[in-house]
Design a protein that fits this description.
Length: about 300
């Protein structure tokens, strides 16, 4: 079991709300010139924003845009782990290009295979979820040497929570700072997730109050909406607003506090399992059987 939410390139465009202008802005950044009209061999654009604001969704929206699809020979999506491991990134690039999982474990052979696949081709590469890491500068420089064998006008788009990552990677353009949703878009997103057939008349009025309290962070709206989708009566919705959700205004858009609303109802033994996993660093890989045996030994399950 690996901690972290791996992303993919596919997106249902009909489910993307309030991001058309952001998509167009990023596409314009990708195709615009930042060097007095000179075509760059590799141009890098960054999307920067807080966790849960929708960076990956926007990257998926751009990746699947028709204008982007027709401009490139290769389209590559890579979800990067926190330590930005070049072996893993090159394996994922190779798998994306060939549609075959790569088990190559020798870095030199792996980079040669990737170079052969992208050499002379104009590619669009998305590196989703880049973290600031002590070896990021060195690892990026090594990866960039491989990527430079692509055709001129190749593009790399990456998402990150950190402006310092954009500086380390050395983008010539200012990063695209992604802000929250407009109030009307937050409400529309909330409606699509929270409301289901069979719910009592009157929950919508309560839903409007809760949607306003959710603020403009899509992850918060989705999380709260998902919890309410399971509730059918006005009494349940009112209790959620007045009890479980009453303190959200103290936290604003604090995502951890919001996600705790999903954690708090868990069985106490499951809470212990989550708490135990929190002892390990982010990105730690567990063997499922070994983890289960540990839970049994500790008496959690």
């Amino acid at each position: 079991v690996k901690r972290g939410r791996e992303t993919w390139s596919f997106i249902n465009k009909d489910m993307v709300i309030g991001r058309d202008r952001d998509r167009d802005n990023v596409v314009n950044m990708l195709f615009g010139s930042s060097n007095n009209g000179v075509v760059e061999t590799l141009s890098v654009v960054a999307i920067v924003g807080i966790g849960g604001i929708g960076k990956s969704t926007l990257a998926q929206y751009v990746y699947n845009d028709e204008k982007v699809k027709i401009k490139f020979d290769l389209h590559i999506w890579v979800w990067a782990t926190q330590n930005f491991d070049n072996m893993e990134i090159l394996q994922k690039i190779l798998a994306s290009v060939t549609d075959e999982k790569s088990d190559q474990g020798v870095l030199d052979m792996l980079q040669r295979q990737v170079r052969r696949q992208i050499s002379g081709k104009k590619y669009f590469l998305v590196l989703d979820n880049i973290w600031d890491h002590q070896n990021l500068c060195l690892n990026w420089a090594e990866l960039q040497n491989v990527l430079l064998c692509g055709a001129p006008a190749s593009r790399t788009l990456f998402t990150t929570r950190s402006e310092s990552v954009a500086r380390i990677v050395g983008t010539k353009r200012n990063p695209y700072m992604l802000s929250g949703l407009a109030p009307e878009d937050s409400w529309l997103l909330f409606q699509r997730i929270a409301f289901r057939p069979g719910q009592e008349h009157g929950v919508e009025a309560i839903g409007k109050e809760i949607a306003r309290m959710c603020g403009d962070v899509p992850l918060v709206v989705r999380t709260i909406g998902g919890l309410l989708a399971e509730k059918c009566t006005v009494k349940e919705w009112g209790a959620f607003r007045d009890d479980e959700f009453a303190n959200l205004s103290e936290y604003g858009s604090n995502i951890i506090e919001t996600l705790k609303l999903s954690y708090n109802p868990l069985d106490p033994r499951l809470k212990l399992c989550f708490a135990y996993c929190a002892l390990f660093p982010k990105g730690w890989t567990f063997g499922p059987r070994g983890l289960i045996l540990i839970f049994i030994a500790l008496g959690y399950v």
